[in-house]
Amino acid sequence: xxxxxxxxxxxxxxxxxxxxxxxxxxxxxxxxxxxxxxxxxxxxxxxxxxxxxxxxxxxxxxxxxxxxxxxxxxxxxxxxxxxxxxxxxxxxxxxxxxxxxxxxxxxxxxxxxxxxxxxxxxxxxxxxxxxxxxxxxxxxxxxxxxxxxxxxxxxxxxxxxxxxxxxxxxxxxxxxxxxxxxxxxxxxxxxxxxxxxxxxxxxxxxxxxxxxxxxxxxxxxxxxxxxxxxxxxxxxxxxxxxxxxxxxxxxxxxxxx
Length: 257
What we know:
Layout: H1 16-20, H2 56-59, E1 68-69, E2 78-85, H3 91-100, E3 104-108, H4 117-123, E4 128-131, H5 146-161, E5 167-168, H6 179-187, E6 192-194, E7 198-201, E8 204-207, E9 216-221, H7 226-239, E10 243-244, H8 247-250
Parallel strand pairs: 1-6, 2-3, 2-9, 2-10, 3-4, 5-6, 7-9
Antiparallel strand pairs: 7-8
Helix pairs in contact: 3-7, 5-6
């Protein structure tokens, strides 16, 4: 029986039918072309880019294949809430997270930070801040500068938050299995690729296989109904007999040894 992979969300479209077909697979060796999300024109905030351009050829000798995690291997009764992009800073969602001390993993496109680093710091204080590229460019397009999208983002995230990210979520869920993506990612300190097996959109939860299980990774977006989506995610997690947990505790940076 064929199993459909979870397709990436159309962030600004909000068409319920797009999410009716979402079904993530745990098979790690296949790739389909995800739907494209509607994103504003990228305008990265100014961070000095002084590092030398990354060379795939120069770094390929140190390359190690990276697994893409659609769920996290664990027998603990936990699930993980992840939020992508960063365009909208919803204060109601922030207050909900702070009230319940939810562990949120924020995958941020760095052009959205601008002067709003405090928002992401607060909403991620029981979780972590990770890399979702610089401009939300499609990694599969030949015109995409992977060094800028990945390594520039690492420097921008460190400048804004004082921490070093090690997880990557490719925009649109695309290109994470590409050799160039993985070599470039590893060259600038990223060594975990995190996908998802459940999606929340406008309060509706879609799960691969129809039921959340231990280690489920749930995808939300920073939007104007974030509070509604968070409540739906937490309700689904508790209904499945799970609890929200910090993804960084279960997927720490890979050893360089």
